[in-house]
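One chain shown below:
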Amino acid sequence: MQTVTPILRLGAVDYLPKPFDPTQLINSVANALSRHQLEQENASMHREVDENARLYKFLLNASSDLIYMLDPTGNFQFVNQQLDGVFDVKLDELVGKPWDALFEKQPGLIDVLGHKVNERRTGIRATIADEFEFSSDLGTRHNLEISSIGLYDHEREENDYLGTYGIIRDVTESKRTRRQLQQSQQKFYSLFVDCPDAVFITKIATGEIIERNPKFVEVRTEMGAADDGMDHFLWTEDQPRNEFVQGLARNPNHFDWLIETEVDKTERYFEVNARQLELEGEQCMIATVRDRTLERRAEQDRLTIQQQLQQAGRMEAIGQVAGGIAHDFNNILASIIGYTELVMNTRKRFSDEQINQYLDEVVTAGHRARDLISQMLTFTRAQRGETAAIDVTQTIADVSRMLRAAIPSTIELDTQFDDDLPAVNIDAIQLQQVIINLLINARDAIHGNGRIEVFAKRTISTSTCRVCGEEISGEQVAISVRDNGHGILPEIIDKIFEMYFTTRETDAGTGFGLWMINNLLHEHDGHITVESELEVGTTFTIHLPANDHETVVSDIAPIPVPKIEGRIVVVDDEVSVANFIAEVLRDKGYPTVVFTDSPQAMTYLQNNMEQIALLVTDGAMPLITGVELAEFAKSRSPDLPIIFITAYTKTHSAQALKKIGVDHYLQKPFSIEEMLTAVGSLVLQSAPAQLSSQSAEG
């Protein structure tokens, strides 16, 4: 019998001697297959163990934490290489050494951490995220966190202790970040809660309030709004929320909005400052609401004071030229009285042509007086006018004419203007005030004989504003006032635009002039430059942006004098004016009734309203004013046309007169043509059918 040992060594799993029983063959095959399957399973298990070992090793080495294992005696069985720069020992040399070798340079930690590093407990009693502080030899302080647990073989009856598994984590940065986050949250919470402004966070789409501070609740209560969790109470019909949302969409990083509302019958102003942000995928905004009421009132008070200072400056200028104006006005009166007496005393000797010539002189002098008074009243008014395209040439000519008598005859005044000089956008009275102050300063700088020159020209300036330091750019209209006076000292030239600064003697000047000029010019995007040399003279030049838009002035076509049914009632407590108006109207064929007593006129209106076609009334009258007469007439006959006469149009604003039903107003003194044009236009409006029938008959 051949030995089977070599065959088994070659890999045979079994052998059968011949002859063999079939049952033996089947059993042998079954054993061979079973053994092969077992070997395959063992091989698979070994591969899985190796793979898990590689994965475990990878995780250990990839972890940012220090991971270790201690054997039952407390020696390091395994330790990875993380946190190598934290501890003062080489981690790859710890295997086989006791656990306290990790802290050998800080023995104080050994007693504290002994039972935690060499943990034998399990479950909830094990060490979980226990924090301690470690300082290296280099003085670096680290906050470390340890978690450890005892390992046991529970399959053995003895429940043998196998060692300790532990993790040490460096939480220095995370703790610092957490602390900074907490501080940031505390700061935000403090700012949010304690902020003096109302602060809220709301959903943009719906207006639902997510967060709000106590001040917001206070503002909501002040505005009388219900606590419905929405922000809609902040907006009004005139300032809808959707316009605010659209503005915020255009300016998501910062958007301002001023809310004007009435609270307890008092006008209040609230400013909303908002920025857009996204919270949990939804567009929201964080906003502050600040009560600007007191600031707006302070601003209004400041503007009022500034207007008062400007008015004081105007009055100072008027005081400077009052003597000259009186002289000019006396000359006008002398002309009116002289020519009138000449006609009265010698009309029988003079021809109609001579008399008409003298009367023309009277009318011309009257127009000069009217224009002079109009300029003075307009110039001295406290209210600011409307900014408009102003003719610089005409404005300077008017001022020069008004000031000519206030400038000594020893001083020559010369004006020069470019042809086709463009207009400038400014209030005409403010421009006059600027020029008057500059002319008066130039006059005062000259002692004895001298010369003042006024230039106006179109220019593209490259100079710099003396006050604000801004470069003057773009097309400008430059108005220069030059004198050959004593000049300005170099050491004070930078102070001349300060409020109250003056070089005049006490009680001779307020120091408002140049300060006011600077403010007025900069309000209209203007600038000012100064050139001065001692004993040679000074030139002030104001620069205003040119406006080349043409102003169209339409001529009013003369209106025919229509016939009317009814009477025109004329009411004026000045007998001569009332009779003059009545004579003109009667001369044109208008039936006219005259009253110089307003109560009598009121009685007549009350009893004869059906017979009245037009009411012409003065404004300022004793007992019953023209406004009261107009209101009474309109209450009885809403369609009755009314002409209001006033000596000063600013006494009654055009809007106020229109509100009570006045159709037209005339400023005294007015010409016959102006009055007849006004009367004719109102008669045409009230009786178009009459005019149509008259035209057909003609």
About this structure: Residues 63-176 form a domain with the Beta-Lactamase fold (CATH 3.30.450.20). The longest strand covers residues 266-279.
